[in-house]
Amino acid sequence: MKIAVIGGTGLLGSNLIKLFKNYDVRAFSRNHSVNIEENVNNLIDFSNITIELGTYFNSWCPDLIINTVALVDLQKCEDDLPLANFSNYEISINLAELAKKNNSYFIHVSTDHYYNDGKYRHNENENVSLLNNYAKTKYKAEEAVLNIYKKSLIVRTNIIGFRKNGKESFFEWLINNMSKELNINLYENFFTSPISVNLLGGILLKCYKKCLVGIYNISSCESISKYDFGMKVSKRFSFDNKKIKKTILIQNESSIQRALTLGLNTSKIEKDLDLKMPKIEEVIDSLYYEYKKGD
């Protein structure tokens, strides 16, 4: 099977490249990075993505295209809407058009930043609250991708894992601070359903084999606050939790508005794949084993 990972040096993309190493997998990125080997990474100009990838796919046509490109920095999305629109929307629709032209199965990795209603878990049909440019551009991309190419899978998720390129992911920051016994402030009013990138990658392959299309929540089957997640991590990794403190994410007119209750209901994916999504403890176990294994 031929797999094209677009944005292959980011948190998700770089891990998918390693996870799919037994397939003919290739990354397409803006630049090289220490977290993936250069021989599988192809540099492309994202402003000319249709022509450059179109030419490449003429000789190497992927069975599966996975879009992991995104501008996830909420502040940058507010400060530079054109850049957010380009990264989160325009690239997505160009890839959907390329996938349709090449009859490739297309996975568009979206987000969970749509809910601020106090509920802990949300299904795919819940009303959304688009509170910032990040959420607006990601949601717009979801709609456009499915309009362009029906053979697309939209994945709403909350990924967590190791980036391993010198730029800390949230989880790397958390583990590093715990190991150094530094003070850590974690929100007790911000809820997500995190899943490790390696667990997600395996599920994406199952979706491809089952030819699932449309919008699916793919995450842990539980919702948890950042604070409670940190406490569970400290216990599993045998770190002292005395430096972990509760804090509240307070929103005001001068701050970026963000959704706070992002938990996802995974009943749909569980039914259609006939498997259970991982619990929080299983997600943390996956991260623990990866941490101990090293790389």
Strand order of the largest sheet: 3-2-1-4-5-6-11
Sheet having the most strands = 7 strands, parallel
**CATH architecture field:** 3-Layer(aba) Sandwich
Arithmetic mean of pLDDT: 96
Q: The CATH topology, please?
A: Rossmann fold
Structural shape: globular
Look at the structure and give the CATH class: Alpha Beta
Q: What is the succession of H and E elements?
A: EHEEHEHHEHEEHEEEHEEHEHH
From the alpha carbons, calculate the radius of gyration and give it in angstroms.
19 Å
Low-confidence stretches: none
- Counted up, domains total 1
Euclidean distance between termini CA atoms: 25 Å
Structural class, by secondary structure, is: alpha/beta
At the fourth level of CATH, the homologous superfamily is NAD(P)-binding Rossmann-like Domain
Strand content: 15-25%
Q: Could you explain how this protein is built, in words?
A:
With 295 residues, the chain is α/β, with parallel strands linked by helices. It has one domain (2-293): Rossmann fold (3-Layer(aba) Sandwich), CATH 3.40.50.720. Helices cover 41% and strands 16% of the residues. It has helices spanning 11-19, 49-59, 74-79, 81-102, 133-148, 170-179, 197-210, 226-236, 267-273, 280-293, and strands at residues 2-6, 24-29, 41-43, 64-67, 105-109, 152-156, 159-160, 184-187, 191-192, 195-196, 214-217, 224-225, 244-247. The strands form 4 sheets. The chain has a 7-stranded parallel sheet with strand order 3-2-1-4-5-6-11, with helices on both faces. Strands 7-10 form a two-stranded parallel ribbon. It has a two-stranded parallel sheet with strand order 8-13. Strand 1 (2-6), helix 1 (11-19) and strand 2 (24-29) form a beta-alpha-beta unit. The two termini are 25 Å apart. The mean pLDDT is 96.
